[in-house]
Amino acid sequence: MQTVVLHNTLTHREEPIVPIDAAGRRVLFYSCGPTVYDDAHVGNFRSFLNADILRRTLELVGYTVRHVMNITDVGHMTDDANADGAGEDKMAVAGRRLLEAKKAGTLPDGVSLDPRDPLAIADFYAARFLEDARTLGLKVAIDLLADPTCMPRPTRCIPQMIELAKRLIDRGHAYVARDGVVYFDVGSFPAYGRLSGNTLAALREGAGERIQAEHQAFKRGAADFMLWKPDASHLLKWDSPWGAGYPGWHLECSAMAAEFLGQEIDIHSGGEDNIFPHHECEIAQSCCGFGQATFARTWFHTRHLVVEGQKMSKSKGNFFTVRDVMARGVTPAALRLELVRMHYRTNANFTWQGLKDCQRQIDRWARAHAALVPHARTCPGKPSAPAGPFETALGEFTLALCDDLNVARAVAAINSVVASSPDGASATHCARRELQAIQSMDSVLGVLDRNTSQQPADDRLAAQVAELIARRAAARAAKEWGESDRVRDELSALGVQIKDGPEGTTWTRQ
RNA sequence: GGCCGAGUACCCAAGUGGCCUAAGGGGACGGAUUGCAAAUCCGUUAUUCGUGGGUUCAAAUCCCACCUCGGCCUCCA
User: Fold this and answer.
1) Residue range(s) in chain A whose domain bears CATH number 3.40.50.620
2) How far is the CA of A91 from the C1' of B61 (A)?
3) Least confident residue range of A76-90, A254-268, A346-360
4) Architecture of domain A5-306
5) Closest nucleotide to A361's CA, by C1' atom?
């Protein structure tokens, strides 16, 4: 099996993936997924899709990947930055937003939900997330249809979280403070800070930022973080040995990774903002709770996306959801490629021009693929034929991905042969193997099957365009070029672009 | 203040000591095609890799200094 080399945030080095699995075939992979209090935006999806590319690359070289991605439906406060659970539950905020939308009549048709029910809100956005995820080819979301365990939700794993918190108390790594809150005792875990570089000393020196005096009163250490907060007034609450309340926001991933993958896993992914504090705290919880030196062997982090050169964030409001982009007629394939084509450890720039670039490349691959299909059917096989251009490209493609997911190089490998073998009809190689090769490459990129715009059909526009095209065809037949061009301008004014092909005129929305 | 990246043509971007007078894509330009376009196809488009030093027979690639930009450390992937 080809070795996949990946940059490990924990060691700051590129390292080969060596599975825990004794047979070396199965890879355990946990990804931090979305928090479903709103629609996911393109930046969220860059992180999820990079995890997907990694998973598909592992599968390309022959691994079986058990991939789990959580859908967080509880436990995040608007102000839980301070690690003490202050602020307001995001689900409550989402509920207010939905309530306003309901009053204003801007909720999508057919949606009926109680905006005061946090679980209903979470379900609402989770369903929309899964729709987007499947549109973009996130394999774990497709797996979910057959395997209900691969995208767990914290609200369904509260007992496991309580269990882990108990273990941490029993083992002397957590304590119940005078305010009744269960805290993790960071001082009890010397390796804290190894992932992020935020050692306890560094955190203390960083005075003023996240460590604020008013939150420190009951904690042993400044960096101690919450595991369970008793709060009977909270919107979502569960019984626990420490009173009715809710879990700390790091606890879910430790508990669910252990539940669905194991106490030690091969790869753990997330966006770079997860490195600290979230993943640092996960390591502390899992290692201390289960008594082992390692939680995830490899940490895989995707850097943030910027939009047209500007940092995007929810608070700034300059972000696009997947649905926003789709509404502009962009194909899922183009969006998928645009989000993964730049190396995951650089700050990628999302642009409309970039989407166009991607679309042209994908269209060319699709034409090459389509040209190969009939040949592969009729071709007798030629098993002894030398490797054709796509087979050769597949080698370079795989090599590039195995080298720390070098998607740009992998894409170049395809491009460099697409031009040189336009019809795939060469007599010297086997069209069937060529087809398999291009499909193998697409098994990672995942674009050929989703190269169709999701834009809702507009029947009125379609009828209008059909009529104009017919008028133009008549004018052209009569060689009335002035009239023909006028009609084309009219179509253009409608935002419609036409293409004259051998089978007649086709059109697309601009 | 701590941590981490990046600066390669008009734009995106690969390349980490010789195969580099620098891959691939987009754009632009020229050609084919077209009634003219669009789409498609073919061709052209960096002797040069942020700046200044150094190491070496040999550097975009290694070392030093400097400049610039970005990200994380708070919500957020």
Assistant:
1) 5-306
2) 51
3) A76-90
4) 3-Layer(aba) Sandwich (3.40)
5) B25
